[in-house]
Prior knowledge:
Blueprint: E1 4-13, E2 18-27, E3 30-35, E4 44-47, E5 52-55, E6 57-62, H1 75-84, E7 87-92, H2 103-116, E8 120-125, H3 139-145, E9 149-150, H4 160-172, E10 177-179, H5 184-187, E11 192-193, H6 196-201, E12 205-206, H7 209-225, E13 229-231, H8 237-248, E14 253-257, H9 259-263, H10 285-296, E15 302-303, H11 312-315, H12 332-341, H13 348-363, E16 378-388, E17 407-417, E18 420-424, E19 427-428
Parallel strand pairs: 1-4, 1-5, 6-7, 7-8, 8-9, 10-13, 11-12, 13-14, 14-15
Antiparallel strand pairs: 1-2, 2-3, 5-16, 16-17, 17-18, 18-19
Helix pairs in contact: 4-7, 7-8, 8-10
Amino acid sequence: MTKLLIRGGRVIDPANQLEGTADVLIEEGRIAKVGPKLSAAGAEILEADGALVFPGFVDLHVHLRSPGREEKETVASGTRAAAKGGFTTVCAMANTDPPADSRPVIDYLLAEAQRTAVVHVLPIGAVTKGLAGESLAEIGELKAAGVVALSDDGHSIMNARLMRHALEYATMFDLPIIGHEEDTTLSAGGVMHEGRISVKQGVQGIPSTAETVMVARDILLAEATHSRLHLAHVSARETVELVRAAKRRGVAVTAEVTPHHLALTDEALQGYEPNFKMSPPLRSAEDQAALREGLRDGTIDCVATDHAPHTQAEKEVELETAPFGVIGLETALAVLLKTLVEPGLLTLTQLATVLSWRPAQILGLPCGTLSPGAVADVTIVDPARVWTVTAGAFASKSSNSPFLGWSLRGQVMEVVVAGRRVVQGGRVIGTNGKGDA
């Protein structure tokens, strides 16, 4: 494997409290050295003057739709979308068809990743068999197969006794549970956030309490069982308050928030546009402000995209019948730059923390840093490049983005995965390093 020298970029590595102009030397797929004016005989030179150099982004929450729903996304297309967005590691959710509740499904996903992925793919196993919320999956078997966490995302575990047992068993295998926090007796039939806009639109709402009562329950269960709980796609002000209080008590709870919940509110649904329909729903401006502050002060640990591709035919229907979910891998960075960094709500170091270092810490992954010896996953961004979000430009098979038409500043130009360049000049250049695809 050739040497690669990334020269003259503004390196931002929270793990090492580094932000400043430096070179990054990669040898044999790992970070060899970071410092000023490095040299290496025979190294390929990648000029990064004027660019931001981050540890590769880590997404804890991605739906690759494989197996079973390849018309929406495949491992190949989903990981190309990830690479284009600067993500070098993605964690694949279990709600596939069949669900990832057994070793054969995990083995299939990992084989597909080995064959077609351009970034690292880490499987998340189901908590319950068939995602039905009735009996636990074989957690030991899933751990042995290589899962990094457990989740029934897309489905709520309504049975508190079962959730308690799940947390206990997961702890035995040193796995966190990623909770889809939704009381379906409160959310049933809802389309958008319950509030002034839903009343104005004449649409049935989903109250914040559909999320928060389950968050409160699961925090208490995690506290009682001394288990690791990670809260997926938090959306409500009260959730932020519950997490903040739990962390003060020493509960092992972490939380993620999506770019769309940080950037948008329920006001976006005044045109009945299905590309703004997701679960949990976009909430009020007060909720959005609490999410932003929670991310800024560390109550919310990281950003995850909840990349949820759907076909155009599925989304081009009335709001009430359209599926929940939006894509987000390719727009996440630029949306965060526009809505949080440019207004001064997050620094670039904080941005790198929530996109790289902190998500890696949550799952104990050996990435998210440019430390010498670490796997060489690097994302290089041109902060000045302006681009427009258009449906035809996505690497994803789907185009159900809430940011279509947005003009954004800041684009991923180069991505290195395990020392291999997979994005050059903003273009994904190959499948698993084996040529263009």
